[in-house]
Every structure is written in structure tokens, then in C-alpha cells.
Amino acid sequence: MSLHTAEFDVEGKRAIVTGASQGIGRTVAETLATGGADVAICSRSQDRVDPVAEGINDDPASGDCLAVECNVRDREAVEAFVEATVEELGGVDVLVNNAGGEFVAAFDDISPNGWESIIDLNLTGTFHCTQVAGEAMRGGDDPGGVVINMSSVNGQHAAPNESHYSAAKAAIIRLTETLSVEWASHDIRVNCVAPGLIQTPGVAETLGIDESDMPPREAVDRRIGHTEDIADVVQFLASPAAAFVNGETYTVKGVPRAGNSMSTDLGLQ
Q1: DSSP letters along 152-203, please?
Q2: pLDDT digits (tens, 9 = 90+) for 175-216
Q3: What is the pLDDT of residue 264?
Q4: Residue 213: which H helix or E strand, with range?
Q5: Terminal C-alpha separation, the chain
Q6: Per the CATH hierarchy, to which homologous superfamily does domain 3-256 belong?
Q7: Surface-to-core class of residue 65, CB atoms within 10 Å of its CB (0-12 exposed, 13-18 middle, 19+ buried)
Q8: What is the pLDDT of residue 216?
Q9: Strand 249-252 with 14-17, pairing
Q10: What's an example GO BP annotation here (predicted)?
Q11: Residue 266 — left, alpha, or beta (φ > 0 → left; ψ -120 to 50 → alpha)?
Q12: Are 31 and 23 in contact (CB under 8 A)?
């Protein structure tokens, strides 16, 4: 490994990845573990996150993986998750706030409960995990770390029929920028990734796309990306190669947007 390449190394780091049962979160966890990091992953269902951990732990070349059932909207559950991570892995160096979700609805059709559920899952969940994991990063013999928040291009531009999700993801970008300043003195970098349309089970369900019709990564269809495209950026931000990157949002969207929401990139609206 060359000196330059070594800067992208994450071996020995202790990482938390939320919402890791499928899609982007799963690929991020697998990518970091393949790079030698030990990872703690969570999902709202233990049955969904266990197979991911088993796959990582079965690979002798990967780091270790701890799987925990955790609803990021539940502060006590988050505290228990981080406590288990510190006990099992010895600390927290990287937090990837990936847990999130959405449903498509016109603004006038969103109920108060629907609004609160999306804000709580995407924004308040990020708040809980960052505050609790941040405390763990500042403790110990070697304080410092990296927080990587997951926003969306829908948090950067108008997103008709996704106002609740768009508002939450926009707030995450502002939270990233503010916290990067507040926590700089603690040697904690805070950055953000804003994916465009990515081939995930969630996108397939939300937009009514058949996953089997999506192009393979080697086809390089710039309208829709793959989870690996996001995981590669996350690993960069978690590595020493990004040591001078703080408070930034990396937009990973392939091609300029054709309209005012992700789905218009494929002509789905």
C-alpha cells in the first residue's frame, strides 16, 4: 500500500452505522468492515440486522460486527446501543447517521402524525445518535472522531410530494454545518452526504420500480446510482484522507437533475 493510498485506510476504526439492515446502510457497514473497521449496526428489527452481521463476521478478512435492535427515535434505546458498542468494540470513532425513511404525499395530505414520524425518524433520530455517540467520542484516552450524516438531494432542492422528508433532510445539512464548528475543538469532524436516486429496496418500493429492471453498476447509468457509490464516499469521509474536510455536504447524484425531485430523473412523475 502506497503512502497516498494508506490515507484512505479505515482499519482499526470503531464505527456505528444506523439503519443498516438493507440499502445504503448495509453497504456502508459492509464496506467499512471490508476496510478493516469494526462496526456496530442497528435496525428496528433484530431479525433484519442479524443476517448483515453474520455475513460480515463470516468473512475472515473483515472487521468484527455487532448487531443491535434499536429505534433511533427512542433516546433510551440509542443510549443502550452506544453503550453496547463501547463495551464490545472499545469505543466509537465513526458515526454514520443513515437511518431514515419517507412516504410520498402532497403537503395537504400529510397528517400531523405522518409529519412527526418522518421528522422524528430522519432528524430527531440523527440528533439522538449524534449527541450520545459524540459524548463517547469525546471520552476515552484518544478523544475525537467523525460524524457522517445522510441527507438527500431532496434536502437541497424542491421536492414536490416529499415536503416532510425534504424539510428533515435540509435540516440535517444545517445541523452538519453548525456542529462542525461547535465540535471542531474536540477533534470531531462532521460532514454530510446527499445521495441522488440510488438503487435500494426503499426506492423501489416508494417509486414503484422493479429492482430487476435497474441497470448493473458496470453499466454506469448516470440517472441512478448504486449503494456502493455512496459507501465509497462515506469511507473517504471516515478516513484520514478527509482530515481537512469539515462541515461539507457531498452531493452524489450522477447527472444534473431533470426536474424538481429525484423521481423525475427517471421520468417517474
Answers
A1: -GGGTS--TT-HHHHHHHHHHHHHHHHHHHHTGGGTEEEEEEEE-SEE-HHH
A2: 999 999 999 999 999 999 999 988 877 666 666 666 666 666
A3: 46
A4: none
A5: 47
A6: NAD(P)-binding Rossmann-like Domain (3.40.50.720)
A7: buried
A8: 66
A9: unpaired
A10: monocarboxylic acid metabolic process
A11: alpha
A12: no
Rounded Cα distance, 86 and 137, in Å:
10
- How far apart are the C-alpha atoms of 59 and 70, rounded to whole Å? 24
Provide the 3-class DSSP secondary structure of residue 139: coil
pLDDT at 61: 93
C-alpha cell at 63: 472487521
Nearest to 96 by CA among 155, 56, 41: 41
Q: Cell numbers for 137, please give them.
A: 467520542
pTM, two decimals, is 0.90
Q: Select the more confidently predicted residue: 262 or 38.
A: 38
The three cell numbers locating residue 229 = 457509490
Tell me which residues are annotated as active site: 165
The residues, ordered by sequence, that sit 6+ positions from 154 with a Cβ below 8 Å of its Cβ are: 162, 165, 166, 169, 261, 262
Does pLDDT of 78 surpass 60?
yes
Q: Are 235 and 31 a contacting pair, CB within 8 Å?
A: yes
User: What number of residues does the chain have?
Assistant: 269
Q: Residues 59-74: what's their mean pLDDT?
A: 97
Residues 6+ apart with CB under 8 A from 268: 207, 208, 209
Helix and strand element counts for the chain (H, E): 9, 9
pLDDT given for residue 200 in this prediction: 79
Q: What string of DSSP letters covers 62-110?
A: S--EEEEE--TT-HHHHHHHHHHHHHHHSS-SEEEE---------GGG-
Per-residue pLDDT tens over the stretch 205-246:
666 666 666 666 666 566 788 899 999 999 999 999 999 999
Residue type, 92: V
> Domain extents for the chain?
3-256
